[in-house]
Each structure stands twice: as structure tokens, then as C-alpha cells.
Amino acid sequence: MIQRLSLASRLALLFAACTAVVSLFAGVLFNRASEAHFIELDQQQLDSKLVALRSTLQGVESLDSFAQREAQLRAELNRQPDLTLRITAAGQRWLDDAPNVSLPEAPGLHTLQNAGTDYRVYNAPLRPGQPASPQLTLMLDITHHQHFLQRMQHLIWLTVGLSALATALLGAWAARSGLRPLRRMGEVAASVSAHSLTQRLPQQQMPAELADLAQAFNAMLGRLDDAFQRLSAFSADIAHELRTPLSNLLTQTQVILTQPRPLEDYREALHSNLEELQWMAQLVNDMLYLAKADHGLLVPKREPLVLADEVETLLEFFALLAEDAQVSLVREGGAQTAGDRGMLRRALSNLLDNALRFTPAGGQVRVRMVEGARGVTLTVENSGEGIPAHVLPRLFDRFYRADPARHEGSSEHAGLGLAITQSIVRAHGGRIFCESAAGWTRFVIELPRGN
After folding, report:
1. Does residue 381 contact residue 369 with C-beta atoms inside 8 Å?
2. Residues near 433 by Cβ (< 8 Å), separated by ≥ 6?
3. Nearest 5°: phi and psi at 326?
4. Which of 7, 248, 409, 429 is exposed most, by the fewest CB atoms within 10 A?
5. What DSSP designation does 389 have?
């Protein structure tokens, strides 16, 4: 199997490729600019020489008159050894110092190569504007120019190669140094286990691009740690909750079987076991309900509800319990929303049940409903002893009891009511929180508009 390139290697190759492309592009531009510069210099040199030649041959009309000026012309040409001249008129060559090579006839500047020598060829009439004028062909040896351009091209390729190699090496080093925080993150991730969820990445030492990732990674570890702690506590709590009823079932069954007993004793033992089994079944059902909520399977129906009617129905149901406890029930306000009637009734029932259990005789339980611009706010509050501030954040934890001693050995309340209520409210897109101050404890449910 072909091994995949590391991120550092990919970055190094990318840096090298970018440097090579930029260097090559710059080299080609410089080469073109140099070539254009030499052409311009040659053009200027040939133009100046053409002016001198025209001045020397001024008045020459025939081969005889040219012969009289030939010595002066050659003296002018000898001043520049790398320049040769060919003069043709009416199909005759008056002067031909150029190499024996086919020359372009078109006027203007041309480039020609012959026998390893490069020339700049310039065709122009001796007397501009006259069709029968003799034609001058100047050939300038530019071999040294071409050699310079060739050496420059070789230097460009060498520079491109060396720049790409140097950039690859430096890029590999820079990428490896820059990716050190990622390797650190990988080491921390590899060391994470159920017994080492407390490790965190140093966010202050991370570069700006990885700071958010490190923060998200630390937050993930925090959630994992919290979930693991909750799972461990849940396992211990559920074992503790089931231990008492199972122990009761075993003890009662063993006692009833130690000796023959009247039918009424068996009936009473079975009735007692049935109560314990019903409570265990309810506990299992509640846990399944919470498990569905954790996995997003708790999907409420959406039907229009008049909360005042729903609350009034629940208050009538709890009226006898409130009368026995000498607690008054009060409903204030009204609101409308859309949600699951059964789920919302269960949530409100849990809150009312808790409020009645912790309201002293002569106290009051109030249910208030307010419909605002952002949604519906429903508050269930009761008078009585407040809840300590350090307890409030844990009220919605599973199996949590604010006063465990009060319920030790009781199978009536397992500490899941508020957890189920929170799951129902969240399934409706809302939130629930608790406040306790000035002798009143309030559970506030906020449901967004549109539910």
C-alpha cells in the first residue's frame, strides 16, 4: 500500500512548487525584457550606422560613382568590425561583405543564424522614398548577446531548481514546527481513556488558527468527562435504587417460604411484592423514557393547546391531595402554545407533585402563565423552605434528591421526575430552570413562540 504524504510534506511540496513557478515566471519575464532591450539597442546602433552610411554614399547614382566612394565607405565600416554590408542595385551587387547566406529581403529588422553565428539583419533603401534606390543590408554580429541570454536562461533554471529545493527544505521545517500543536493534540487524544479525561490542551500556547480547535477539543473532553462521571454515578444510583426493592422481594419471599402459612399470608406477601414490582417497572419505564430523550427519539406532537385549560385539569386532579396537605392551589394568567398534550401534562404533574410535597401546611402553590413576544413562560412556584444555591444546578440530575435522608428506603420517588420534565421541555425546544429566594421556590418553563 502506498503511504500517504504527511501534511508537512504536502505543504513543503506546495511551497516548493509555488516558489518554482514564481521564479520561473520572473525569469522568463526578465529574459524577454533583456531580449527586447538588446533588440532595441541593436536597432538604435543600426539606425545610427545607417545615417552615417547614407551620408557617405550621398549622390551615388551608379556603380562608377560608388567605386569613387568605396574606400571612404570601407573606412566607415572598419570602425565597427562586427558590422558587414551588402549593397544591391538593379540586380547588381555593388558591395558584398556579408556571409554567403540567403538574407531576408523584407525591409526592417530581422534575426538570422548562420554557422553558429547570430546576426541582426537590417534592410533599408539608400534613398528613402525612391523605388529605384539601391538597397542597403546591414548585418550586425550579435553572438555575444545570444550567449549572454543563454547563460541567463541556464542561470534561471539553476535558480528555479535551487529555490525550489531550498524552499522545500525550509517549508518542511516550518510546516513541522507549525504543526507541532497538532501533534500535541494527537498525543493528548491518544492518551485519553476512561481514567484520564482530565487532560486539557494549553489554549494560551496554541496559534490563533488552532485556538478555537483547542477550545472545542477541551470542551469535548469536558463533556466526555462529565458524561462519564454521570454514567458512573447513574450506574451506582440505579444499582442503589434497585437494591432496596430486590432485597425486599427476596426477604419477603424467603420468609413466606420458610414454613406453610395460611392463604391470606400468601395473598398479603404477593400484594406487597406486586407493589415493589410495579415501582421497579415504573423505574425502568422512566429510564427508557430518558434514554429516548438522550437519543433524540422523544418527538412531541404539535397540536394547539390552551394552557389555562390544561393547568385547570391538573389542579382539579391534585385538589384532594392539596386539601389533605392544607395547601391552596392558585392559577394566574393564561397562554396558548402548540405541543404534545400528554408530555406537557406529565411535566406539569411532576412539578405540581414536587411543589405539594415540599409546601408546608397553610402554604400555597401557584401556577402562572404569561404569553410574551418571545414565547410562553409557565411558572410553578410554592412557598416554604428554600433550596440552597449550591443545590440548584443539580436539581435536574437523575436520581438526585435535595434531601436524601428524607427519602431513604422510599420507593415512591426515585429522583427522576425533574429529569423527565427537563427532557420534555427540551424536546419542545424550550428550557427550564429553578429559582429559590424569599421563601418561594420557582420552576420556570420557557417555550419558544411557534411551538
Report:
1. no
2. 443, 444
3. 60, 45
4. 409
5. T
